[in-house]
Amino acid sequence: MNLDFSQIVPSIPFIMNGIWVTLLFVLVSAILGFFIGILLSLFKISRFKSLKIFADGYTSIFRGTPLILQLMIIYFAVPQLTGYDIPAFLAGVLAFGLNSGAYISEVIRAGIQAVDKGQIEAAKALGVSYGLMMKDIILPQAMKNILPALINEFITLTKESAIISTIGYLDIMRRAQVVGANTYRYFEPFLVVALIYYLLVMGLTIVGRLVERRLRRSES
User: Fold this and answer.
1) Using an 8 Å Cβ cutoff, are 22 and 161 in contact?
2) How confident is the model over 26-79, as pLDDT tens digits?
3) In this model, does residue 219 exceed pLDDT 70?
4) What's the alpha-carbon Rg for the chain, to the nearest Å?
5) CATH code of the domain in which 141 resides
6) Which of 60-64, 104-108, 133-137, 160-164 has the lowest mean pLDDT?
7) In-domain check, residue 97
8) What domain range includes position 32?
Protein backbone atom coordinates (compact mmCIF):
# COMPACT_ATOMS: atom_id res chain seq x y z
CA MET A 1 0.00 0.00 0.00
CA ASN A 2 1.62 3.21 -1.18
CA LEU A 3 -0.62 5.73 0.56
CA ASP A 4 0.58 9.03 1.97
CA PHE A 5 -2.18 11.50 2.82
CA SER A 6 0.36 13.94 4.29
CA GLN A 7 1.29 15.06 0.78
CA ILE A 8 -2.24 16.21 -0.05
CA VAL A 9 -3.09 17.77 3.33
CA PRO A 10 -2.11 21.28 2.11
CA SER A 11 -4.49 20.81 -0.84
CA ILE A 12 -7.52 19.72 1.19
CA PRO A 13 -8.83 23.33 1.64
CA PHE A 14 -8.62 23.72 -2.15
CA ILE A 15 -10.72 20.58 -2.59
CA MET A 16 -13.15 21.57 0.16
CA ASN A 17 -13.82 24.94 -1.49
CA GLY A 18 -15.21 22.95 -4.38
CA ILE A 19 -18.18 21.91 -2.23
CA TRP A 20 -19.78 25.35 -2.54
CA VAL A 21 -18.96 25.48 -6.25
CA THR A 22 -20.61 22.09 -6.74
CA LEU A 23 -23.67 22.92 -4.63
CA LEU A 24 -24.20 26.22 -6.47
CA PHE A 25 -24.04 24.42 -9.80
CA VAL A 26 -26.44 21.71 -8.65
CA LEU A 27 -28.89 24.24 -7.18
CA VAL A 28 -29.03 26.40 -10.33
CA SER A 29 -29.35 23.31 -12.54
CA ALA A 30 -32.12 21.91 -10.31
CA ILE A 31 -34.09 25.16 -10.41
CA LEU A 32 -33.84 25.30 -14.21
CA GLY A 33 -34.81 21.64 -14.49
CA PHE A 34 -37.76 22.14 -12.13
CA PHE A 35 -39.27 24.97 -14.18
CA ILE A 36 -38.68 23.11 -17.44
CA GLY A 37 -40.26 20.03 -15.86
CA ILE A 38 -43.38 21.95 -14.83
CA LEU A 39 -43.76 23.43 -18.31
CA LEU A 40 -43.29 20.07 -20.03
CA SER A 41 -45.69 18.31 -17.67
CA LEU A 42 -48.38 20.86 -18.48
CA PHE A 43 -47.70 20.31 -22.18
CA LYS A 44 -48.09 16.56 -21.72
CA ILE A 45 -51.56 16.87 -20.22
CA SER A 46 -52.58 19.66 -22.56
CA ARG A 47 -55.49 19.34 -24.97
CA PHE A 48 -53.25 20.61 -27.77
CA LYS A 49 -51.69 17.69 -29.62
CA SER A 50 -48.74 19.74 -30.88
CA LEU A 51 -47.67 20.55 -27.30
CA LYS A 52 -47.95 16.88 -26.31
CA ILE A 53 -45.83 15.83 -29.30
CA PHE A 54 -43.19 18.45 -28.46
CA ALA A 55 -43.03 17.45 -24.77
CA ASP A 56 -42.90 13.73 -25.53
CA GLY A 57 -40.22 14.26 -28.17
CA TYR A 58 -38.18 16.43 -25.83
CA THR A 59 -38.37 13.82 -23.06
CA SER A 60 -37.51 11.00 -25.45
CA ILE A 61 -34.40 12.76 -26.73
CA PHE A 62 -32.98 13.81 -23.37
CA ARG A 63 -33.78 10.51 -21.67
CA GLY A 64 -32.53 8.49 -24.61
CA THR A 65 -29.06 10.03 -24.97
CA PRO A 66 -26.16 10.15 -22.46
CA LEU A 67 -25.90 13.25 -20.29
CA ILE A 68 -22.20 13.57 -21.01
CA LEU A 69 -22.97 13.65 -24.75
CA GLN A 70 -25.48 16.46 -24.22
CA LEU A 71 -22.86 18.36 -22.23
CA MET A 72 -20.25 17.90 -24.95
CA ILE A 73 -22.65 19.08 -27.66
CA ILE A 74 -23.51 22.26 -25.73
CA TYR A 75 -19.92 23.04 -24.72
CA PHE A 76 -17.99 22.01 -27.84
CA ALA A 77 -20.42 21.66 -30.76
CA VAL A 78 -22.75 24.64 -30.26
CA PRO A 79 -19.85 27.18 -30.31
CA GLN A 80 -18.85 25.69 -33.67
CA LEU A 81 -22.26 26.72 -35.04
CA THR A 82 -22.71 30.01 -33.19
CA GLY A 83 -19.16 31.28 -32.81
CA TYR A 84 -19.83 31.95 -29.11
CA ASP A 85 -17.53 30.27 -26.57
CA ILE A 86 -19.97 29.30 -23.87
CA PRO A 87 -18.57 29.33 -20.29
CA ALA A 88 -18.23 25.94 -18.60
CA PHE A 89 -20.69 26.87 -15.83
CA LEU A 90 -23.39 27.97 -18.27
CA ALA A 91 -22.86 24.93 -20.49
CA GLY A 92 -23.14 22.64 -17.49
CA VAL A 93 -26.27 24.33 -16.15
CA LEU A 94 -27.95 24.11 -19.55
CA ALA A 95 -27.03 20.46 -20.07
CA PHE A 96 -28.01 19.35 -16.56
CA GLY A 97 -31.08 21.59 -16.39
CA LEU A 98 -32.43 20.47 -19.76
CA ASN A 99 -31.73 16.82 -18.93
CA SER A 100 -33.21 17.02 -15.45
CA GLY A 101 -36.29 18.77 -16.81
CA ALA A 102 -37.10 15.71 -18.93
CA TYR A 103 -37.10 13.42 -15.88
CA ILE A 104 -38.86 15.88 -13.59
CA SER A 105 -41.62 16.39 -16.16
CA GLU A 106 -42.57 12.72 -15.88
CA VAL A 107 -42.61 12.91 -12.09
CA ILE A 108 -44.80 16.04 -12.07
CA ARG A 109 -47.11 14.65 -14.76
CA ALA A 110 -47.68 11.53 -12.67
CA GLY A 111 -48.31 13.71 -9.61
CA ILE A 112 -50.85 15.85 -11.44
CA GLN A 113 -52.69 12.83 -12.80
CA ALA A 114 -52.78 11.29 -9.32
CA VAL A 115 -54.84 14.22 -7.97
CA ASP A 116 -58.49 13.30 -7.46
CA LYS A 117 -60.40 14.12 -10.65
CA GLY A 118 -63.34 15.19 -8.53
CA GLN A 119 -61.44 18.30 -7.49
CA ILE A 120 -60.86 19.22 -11.12
CA GLU A 121 -64.55 18.78 -11.91
CA ALA A 122 -65.50 20.82 -8.83
CA ALA A 123 -63.16 23.65 -9.88
CA LYS A 124 -64.66 23.67 -13.36
CA ALA A 125 -68.17 23.71 -11.90
CA LEU A 126 -67.25 26.77 -9.86
CA GLY A 127 -65.98 28.52 -12.97
CA VAL A 128 -62.30 28.50 -11.94
CA SER A 129 -60.07 29.10 -14.96
CA TYR A 130 -57.63 26.41 -16.05
CA GLY A 131 -54.59 28.49 -15.09
CA LEU A 132 -55.85 29.29 -11.59
CA MET A 133 -56.98 25.72 -11.08
CA MET A 134 -53.52 24.43 -11.88
CA LYS A 135 -51.72 27.09 -9.84
CA ASP A 136 -53.90 27.08 -6.71
CA ILE A 137 -55.45 23.61 -6.58
CA ILE A 138 -53.76 20.91 -8.67
CA LEU A 139 -50.04 21.75 -8.59
CA PRO A 140 -49.84 22.32 -4.79
CA GLN A 141 -51.36 18.89 -4.15
CA ALA A 142 -49.22 17.25 -6.82
CA MET A 143 -46.03 18.79 -5.39
CA LYS A 144 -46.87 17.48 -1.95
CA ASN A 145 -47.17 13.95 -3.33
CA ILE A 146 -44.02 14.02 -5.44
CA LEU A 147 -41.71 15.95 -3.11
CA PRO A 148 -39.76 12.81 -2.08
CA ALA A 149 -39.25 11.93 -5.74
CA LEU A 150 -38.00 15.46 -6.45
CA ILE A 151 -35.51 15.18 -3.59
CA ASN A 152 -34.27 11.89 -5.06
CA GLU A 153 -33.78 13.66 -8.38
CA PHE A 154 -31.77 16.36 -6.58
CA ILE A 155 -29.60 13.64 -4.99
CA THR A 156 -29.01 12.05 -8.40
CA LEU A 157 -28.14 15.44 -9.85
CA THR A 158 -25.61 16.00 -7.07
CA LYS A 159 -23.80 12.75 -7.86
CA GLU A 160 -23.91 13.22 -11.62
CA SER A 161 -22.56 16.76 -11.30
CA ALA A 162 -19.07 15.24 -11.26
CA ILE A 163 -19.42 14.89 -15.03
CA ILE A 164 -18.95 18.65 -15.43
CA SER A 165 -15.30 18.17 -14.49
CA THR A 166 -14.78 16.83 -18.03
CA ILE A 167 -15.07 20.38 -19.42
CA GLY A 168 -12.71 21.92 -16.85
CA TYR A 169 -15.20 23.40 -14.38
CA LEU A 170 -13.55 23.54 -10.95
CA ASP A 171 -16.03 21.44 -8.99
CA ILE A 172 -14.97 18.93 -6.35
CA MET A 173 -14.01 16.28 -8.87
CA ARG A 174 -11.96 18.61 -11.05
CA ARG A 175 -10.09 19.94 -8.02
CA ALA A 176 -9.15 16.39 -7.07
CA GLN A 177 -7.78 15.88 -10.58
CA VAL A 178 -5.74 19.08 -10.27
CA VAL A 179 -4.31 17.97 -6.93
CA GLY A 180 -3.50 14.55 -8.38
CA ALA A 181 -1.70 16.11 -11.34
CA ASN A 182 0.34 18.40 -9.05
CA THR A 183 1.30 15.74 -6.50
CA TYR A 184 1.37 12.71 -8.82
CA ARG A 185 -0.91 11.00 -6.31
CA TYR A 186 -4.49 10.33 -7.36
CA PHE A 187 -5.85 7.75 -4.96
CA GLU A 188 -5.72 10.03 -1.91
CA PRO A 189 -7.51 13.07 -3.40
CA PHE A 190 -10.09 10.85 -5.10
CA LEU A 191 -10.72 9.09 -1.79
CA VAL A 192 -11.27 12.47 -0.09
CA VAL A 193 -13.69 13.48 -2.85
CA ALA A 194 -15.53 10.16 -2.56
CA LEU A 195 -16.02 10.83 1.15
CA ILE A 196 -17.29 14.36 0.44
CA TYR A 197 -19.83 13.12 -2.13
CA TYR A 198 -20.92 10.35 0.22
CA LEU A 199 -21.53 12.78 3.07
CA LEU A 200 -23.43 15.16 0.77
CA VAL A 201 -25.65 12.38 -0.53
CA MET A 202 -26.25 10.95 2.94
CA GLY A 203 -27.20 14.42 4.19
CA LEU A 204 -29.66 14.89 1.35
CA THR A 205 -31.02 11.37 1.92
CA ILE A 206 -31.70 12.17 5.58
CA VAL A 207 -33.48 15.37 4.56
CA GLY A 208 -35.57 13.36 2.11
CA ARG A 209 -36.59 10.87 4.80
CA LEU A 210 -37.53 13.65 7.20
CA VAL A 211 -39.69 15.24 4.51
CA GLU A 212 -41.40 11.88 3.84
CA ARG A 213 -42.13 11.41 7.54
CA ARG A 214 -43.58 14.90 7.84
CA LEU A 215 -45.77 14.31 4.81
CA ARG A 216 -47.05 11.04 6.28
CA ARG A 217 -47.89 12.75 9.56
CA SER A 218 -49.75 15.54 7.80
CA GLU A 219 -51.80 13.01 5.87
CA SER A 220 -52.71 10.95 8.93
Assistant:
1) yes
2) 999 999 999 999 999 999 988 899 999 999 999 999 999 999 999 999 999 999
3) no
4) 21
5) 1.10.3720.10
6) 133-137
7) yes
8) 17-170
Report which of residues 111 and 97 the model is more confident about: 97
Give the angle subtended at the CA of 116 by the CAs of 112 and 122, to the nearest 5°.
Answer: 110
Q: Residue 119, Cα to own-chain centre: how many angstroms?
A: 31
Question: For residue range 172-208, what is the model confidence (pLDDT) as tens digits?
Answer: 999 999 999 999 899 999 999 999 999 999 998 898 8
Look at the chain and report how many structural domains it folds into.
Answer: 1
Alpha carbons 52 and 46: distance in angstroms, whole number: 7
- The answer to whether position 141 is within a domain reads yes
Single-letter amino acid, residue 174:
R
3-state SS record for the chain = CCCCHHHCHHHHHHHHCHHHHHHHHHHHHHHHHHHHHHHHHHHHCCCCHHHHHHHHHHHHHHHHCCHHHHHHHHHHHHHHHHCCCCCHHHHHHHHHHHHHHHHHHHHHHHHHHHCCHHHHHHHHHCCCCHHHHHHHHHHHHHHHHHHHHHHHHHHHHHHHHHHHHHHCCCCHHHHHHHHHHHHCCCHHHHHHHHHHHHHHHHHHHHHHHHHHHHHHHHHC
**Distance between CA 157 and CA 17 in Å, rounded?**
19
Residue 79 domain flag: yes
